[in-house]
Every structure is written in C-alpha cells, then in structure tokens.
Amino acid sequence: MNKELIAAIEQIEREKGISKETLLETIEAALITAYKKNFPYSANARVAIDRDSGEVRVFTRISVVEEYSEDKDEILLEDALDIDPNYRVGDIIEEEVTPQNFGRIAAQTAKQVVVQRIREAERSVIFEEFSNRESEIITGIVQRQNRGTVFVNLGRTEAVLLASEQINGEKYYQNERIKVYILEVKQTNKGPQVAVSRTHPGLVKRLFELEVPEIYDGVVEIKSIAREAGSRTKLSVYTKDANIDAVGTCVGQRGARVQNIVEDLRGEKIDIVNWSKDPKVYISNALSPSAVVAVYILDDDRSAMVVVPNHQLSLAIGKEGQNARLAAKLTGWKIDIKSQEQFDSLENIDEIIALDQAHYDSSLGDADPLVEERVDASTEQAAVEGDAQEPAEKPEQTEAENVAIDMSEYEEVDLDDFEIEEYDIVEDVDLDDFELEDVEEVNVDDLQNDVEE
Question: What is the DSSP letter of 372?
C-alpha cells in the first residue's frame, strides 16, 4: 500500500461523500482482523497507515510488569529498562512487527471486509442525511412498481411509497417526477429505508411553504389542515399583520399560487379560509363555500349548531358529508348543521340561544380584530377565467352583529329568477308597420346644396 491507496481513498471521498479519515480507520480495522487471523497470538496488535505516504506498519503492544502473568503480551520491568530507562510498571511498549509478506496476505484477506465497511459507512451517511429531513418534501423519480408499491429514486437512495400512502385513482409512470412527503427513515440490515407519502396533510403544508414566501418566512401561518387526499383539502391561515390579506396571499395574483399547488396534487380542490379566535367566525369560515345564517355554541365540549339558508343545506353538508366533515376536522368542533326551516321548528330554541349567549358573554373581547372572510380556491380560479364577479360591499356590522350575519344577501344573483313585468319585450320590428304621416319627403340634392353652403 502506497500513495495510490491514498489517491483512491480521496477519490472515494469525493464520489461517495465518505470522509478520508473514516475510510482509513475502516481499512486499519480490516487489516488488524487479517493480521490476527494469520498471527493468532498477537492479540494486542495495532495497524497504522501513514496519512500521506500510505505506508502500512504493524505494532505489537506489550505491557511492563514486575512479574509475568497469564497474559503473553508482557515484559518484565528490568528488561524494559534495558530498552529505555524511563519505563515504569504499567507502561505500554510498542514494537514494530510488520511481516515481510503482510501486504499480499492482508490485501487478500481484508478485501471483503474493506468493501463491507465502506458500504456500511455509505449507508450511515445516507441515513444521517435523510433522517434529518423527516417531515419535509422532496422530489423524486418513479423507478418501478411492484404489487402496488411504488419505488421512488431520490438520488442516493430509493424511497418506498406504499399503497396506503398513495392517492386513490392516482397513476404513476416510470421516470415521472413527483413530489412526496418524507414520513420516516429507518435503518435496516439492507441499509436506510425511506418511507414517503402522497396523502399526508404535511405535503400540502410544505407545498404552500415552497409556493408562498410569506408562509416560509412566518408572516402568514397555517393554523390547521384537514385533508381527504385526491378530493378536497381545507386549510386555515392567520397573520398578525392587519395590512396583509392571509387568504389572498396564499391564493396569489389571479390564483397563480394555489393553482400551482393544485397541479402538483393533480386537481385536488383546496379551500383556504381565515382562522379566528372566535369559534363562531372560525366555524362559519370553515363551512365555505356555503353561506351561514348563524352559529350557536351549545356547551363546553366544543359542540356547535350552525344554521344555513334552506336552499344551501346540501351545499353546507357537501357530497357524502365531505364539507361538514372537513370543517369539523379543521376547527376541532362537533358541528350540527340545520337549515333555517329546521331550526325554526325546534322546540328548545330559547335554550339554545341562552347557552350560546352564556358562552359568548364569557368569551367577549377575545375575537380576532382582523376582518374575517371566506375564500374558496375554486372561486379564485373562476376569477382567473373571468367568471367570478366582484362581491357586493358589505354593510358595517357591530362586533355583536358579526356573530350571526345573514349571508343570503351576498349570494350570486341569477337573472333568470327576476320577472320583468313593467316592460314588454320587443322582438323583431318591421319598419313597414310604422306610418310616417308627419314626415315630408326629403330631396337629397337639396341636402347636398345645404352642406356645400
């Protein structure tokens, strides 16, 4: 072993990212194993590799004692003093015992050991790299599929996307680039195993951090996320800066920011609402895109009754209860949705109002000072296409009146619902039907003369 060894180690360090010192220590350990195999009576041997020249030397370690014991690697004090008068009992004497043919024997014996140690060192580097990236998002390339499991190439290692972590109906093609969320990194006998997901709510959060600088910088905060992967996601956002529109910041100009995230999630719908300390306002926002007439807090176990317009009951509940289910997950409240007609028919309305008023009185003054609004990302997308209309300006409300606002006045207007009674609709007009009695015949030549004059 010589300078060529050092050059090879330095090349491995550059290509594999394994430090030179780690490799040299690994080779030294392998050479000790090879030496002890050929010289079994040298239990205290030590191998040293010169870091510059690559020269290998073997030393045996002998302890200085007053009397011999069962340990064979010992030397009497009087004999040690003949070597160096400064030796004392307990000192260690190293003597070089490098065999003449050690290079050939060691290389043959230690080859597999060195390769294995290098592989282990490389696995350790990969494990440390990805274990520090848990709960982060990473882009990989679909390598192959086997019995529903997708293997994603992350560059230095391969990640496993289990069927349970895949979005229903989503198809993955070989060499396709996808963004995944790192769930867990485990060390196994075969090396580090990286488990990733496409369904975790953290994927949506990290995508917004990548797309919205204000979220990454902490100016806008994502308070909660409720997700049914592949179908719909609701998230609530908040900012302490009254000059910043948290929802508008996430949506972006003409919906550009949220649209990029929707594309990464392959069409999954995203509702973005404002978070509020006031549970009434928060629950009302969470039920977007449905209008809310009133919210009543029932008791202290986080239960609420929400009243919606009669014609929007199905919209508030959502397809198969999805909208109500996501709103409950987002807010952490049990939500009972009733139409205005159903609410009016209840026999205990006074009791409900009393419970709500008691809760509201106890929490008065804790409401969020920022203006609360509800924005559906699909509405913002419609605005990009030119289909959305500017919302009507809302009348000013006092703090107490903001608790239960009749949102029906802000619904979209369907012109077909209006009946035009005062005017007759004029269809095709035939000018021959009109009689021009008072109009004299006009001479074109006379008009031309008048113009010239």
Answer: P
Whole-number mean pLDDT of the chain? Answer: 77
From first CA to last CA, the distance across the chain in angstroms is 116
- Would the pTM of this model clear 0.70, i.e. be above it? no
Better-predicted residue by pLDDT, 51 or 334: 334
> Do 122 and 28 sit in the same domain of this protein?
yes
Overall domain count for the chain: 2
Radius of gyration of the chain (CA): 40
Q: What pLDDT does 412 receive?
A: 46
Tokens 């496409």 — which residue?
Answer: 198
Sequence-separated (6 or more) residues with CB below 8 Å from residue 83: 93
User: Sign of the CA dihedral 322, 323, 329, 334?
Assistant: negative
pLDDT value, residue 103:
66
How long, in residues, is the chain?
A: 453
The number of beta carbons lying within 10 Å of the beta carbon of residue 19 is 14
Cα separation, 111 vs 118, whole angstroms: 11
> 49: closest CA among 15, 18, 10, 5?
5
Boundary (domain end) residue, out of 95, 129, 163: 129
What is the edge-to-edge ordering of all strands in the sheet holding 294-299? 294-299, 303-308, 334-339
Q: Please check whether residue 317 is in contact with residue 324, taking contact to mean a CB–CB distance below 8 angstroms.
A: yes
**What DSSP line would sit under 47-102, residue for residue?**
EEE-TTT--EEEEEEEEEESS--S-SSEEEHHHHHHH-TT--TT-EEEEE---TTH
- Segments forming the whole domain that contains residue 154: 133-197
Determine the number of helices (DSSP H) and then strands (DSSP E) in the chain: 15, 16
Are residue 59 and residue 145 in the same domain, yes or no?
no
Residue ranges with strand state E in 66-100: 74-76, 92-96
